[in-house]
Amino acid sequence: MAVNPGYEEFEPFCKWQRGEEQDIIGLHLHGFKRDQVRVQLTNLGIIVVSGERLLDEGRGSRFRKEIRVSKDCKTNEIHAHMTNSILYVVMPKRAPSVLPSTQDQPTVLSQSSQEKEVAKPRTEDHNNVADHTATKPLSAGECSTGITLVKPPSCNSSKVWRIGSVMKLTIVIALLVGLVATVMHKYLQAPDIM
Q1: Order of strands across the sheet with 13-18?
Q2: 116 — phi, psi (to 5°)?
Q3: Taking the complete model, does pTM exceed 0.85, yes or no?
């Protein structure tokens, strides 16, 4: 009979490497193998890196890290590879057409404050972990190292519009039924003058 292990949550040490062509975040995952790690891209532009492994019978170790992707990132080309227990998530950037005065940078979402921490220029360390709801994977692309990058589904706007229209129509009908019921009630309670 298998026993569900108790998991120890931990925050992996992270190091940013910023460049003009790409940003790279290195997550130090000592003891993890690439098949124990999952990298997902949500439809909100957040990379979710998670993993779990068994330490011994009855104990396990797991983590979850969320990274907001910068607006100048080529999300189709994000990839990850693992070397010497360090997971590298590579986020290629689009060529800048015009440099704005304030440029969006990738951020790591904090669990405790749920506020965005804007990443500092060049190399820096982040040790914040976030615990949010699950992502919605649609299709997976396998990197050369075997780490799975899951991309979000495209939003079917016509379906959303139809659901919104049905809700509005239902509300209008309910209001009309209520109005008719109120008028009928008042009419039936009015004394006959004739």
Answers
A1: 79-83, 86-92, 22-28, 13-18, 124-126
A2: -80, 135
A3: no
Residue-wise pLDDT tens digits, 16-58: 999 889 999 999 998 899 899 999 998 888 999 999 988 888 8
Cα distance between residue 52 and residue 44, in whole Å: 24
Structure tokens at 69: 């992707």
| One-letter amino acid of 119 | A
Higher pLDDT, 155 or 45: 45
Report yes or no: 52 and 32 within 8 Å, Cβ to Cβ. Answer: no
CA distances to 26, 63, 105 from 8, rounded to whole Å, are 21, 8, 31
Cα separation of 42 and 150, whole Å? Answer: 8
Single out the residue of 101, 93, 94, 106 nearest to residue 49, CA to CA: 106
